[in-house]
Design a protein that fits this description.
With 344 residues, the protein is an all-alpha fold. Helix 1 runs parallel beside helix 8, helix 3 packs across helix 10 and helix 5 packs antiparallel against helix 10. It has a single domain, classed as Up-down Bundle (Na+/H+ antiporter like fold). The chain is 78% helix and 0% strand. GO terms for molecular function: symporter activity. Does not show transport activity towards bile acids or steroid sulfates. Keywords: Cell membrane, Endoplasmic reticulum, Golgi apparatus, Ion transport, Membrane, Sodium, Sodium transport, Symport, Transmembrane, Transmembrane helix, Transport. Belongs to the bile acid:sodium symporter (BASS) (TC 2.A.28) family. It is found in: Cell membrane; Endoplasmic reticulum membrane; Golgi apparatus membrane.
Length: 344
């Protein structure tokens, strides 16, 4: 199962490259008004499909066991949806004086505003042997929170496309995000046994639709002769994203392992991944809605497209190291408790 998941993620990375290359070769196919009619197929049908699919696949009925650990959930959600975007905003005040493309910098801010992903943080937490129930809860709960909080954060830090009024943004978000998600959850209640038995390829479906959104987004870019993306900015953004990921993973590790933090080593594993990972599946459709018609939408999307594979790559590389730390830490705690138990 883990091998299939890894193959799917590798296929998706290749798909992103092919989607961008295809958009570069023939951008007229996916532009607004083109043969694909993205103003309808992407803005409404594709986005709604992704969130209906998320509603079907979210196992919210299994989250009750993780509800009691309120301190852990508060830490993850506050770090992800408050500290992360605020810290990125402060960092960008320094980067604004550099020659890095301003729209890529705005894209970095959008990364900070995104909710946690539904799958990658859970998969990596499970691979290490951490608190999987907490990872599932915070990924699902963060996704629900993100439906409301992420658009508000995007509007707070970046504003919206001038062609789309505030009320229109939230009415479209409600119809294409909230409603399909709720319908998906309702349908899941009636076909839950069938879903558990057949295990439909939810990930592959969402990934395929997402590739279509990415393709049409870059078609808009390459059809606009006024947009130029310099390689220097792109390389710097890649380096910055790696640095942000590692720094925030280290920061969450330090905070969650302090004396009297109340977190177990298994909790720390869930915190590291859930607090620092960001959702591409939910993020790209939201950007498509909030920045509808924006000529620099694809440039704003680039950092999130980079952040997604980086979090999976870094997480996978660090799994053995984090697992080794967790096992040794658990052994030390058991050894400490052993003598104390004997004294009692």
């Amino acid at each position: 199962m883990r091998l299939l998941e890894r193959m799917r993620k590798e296929w998706f990375m290749v798909g992103i490259v092919l989607a961008i290359a295809g958009a570069k070769l023939e951008p007229s196919v996916g532009v607004n008004g083109g043969p694909l009619k993205p103003e309808i197929t992407v803005s409404y049908i594709a986005v709604a499909t992704i969130f209906f699919n998320s509603g079907l696949s979210l196992k919210t009925e299994e989250l009750t066991s993780a509800l009691v650990h309120i301190k852990l959930h508060l830490f993850i959600q506050i770090f992800t949806l408050a500290f992360f975007p605020a810290a990125i905003w402060l960092f960008l005040q320094l980067l604004s004086i550099t020659p890095i493309n301003e729209w890529l910098l705005k894209g970095l801010q959008t990364v900070g505003c995104m909710p946690p992903p539904v799958s990658s943080a859970v998969i990596l937490t499970k691979a290490v042997g951490g608190n999987e129930a907490a990872a599932i809860f915070n990924s699902a709960f963060g996704s629900f929170l993100g439906i409301v909080i992420t658009p508000l954060l995007l509007l707070l830090f970046l504003g919206s496309s001038s062609s789309v009024p505030f009320t229109s943004i939230f009415s479209q978000l409600f119809m294409t995000v909230v409603v399909p998600l709720i319908i998906g959850q309702i349908v899941r209640r009636y076909i839950k046994d069938w879903l558990e038995r057949k295990k439909p390829p939810f990930g592959a479906i969402s990934s395929s639709v997402l590739l279509m959104i990415i393709y049409t987004t870059f078609c808009d870019t390459f059809s606009n002769p006024n947009i130029d993306l310099d390689k220097f900015s792109l390389i710097l953004i890649l380096f910055i994203i790696f640095s942000i990921q590692l720094s925030f993973m280290l920061l969450t590790f330090i905070f969650s392992t302090r004396n009297n933090s109340g977190f177990t080593p298994a909790d720390t594993v869930a915190i590291i991944f859930c607090s620092t990972h960001k959702s591409l599946t939910l993020g790209i459709p939201m950007l498509k809605i909030v920045f509808a018609g924006h000529e620099h939408l694809s440039l704003i999307s680039v950092p999130l497209l980079i952040y997604h594979p980086v979090q999976i790559l870094l997480g996978s590389v660090l799994v053995p190291t984090i697992k080794s730390w967790m096992v040794s830490r658990q052994k030390k705690l058991l050894q400490t408790r052993g003598p104390l138990a004997n004294l009692e």
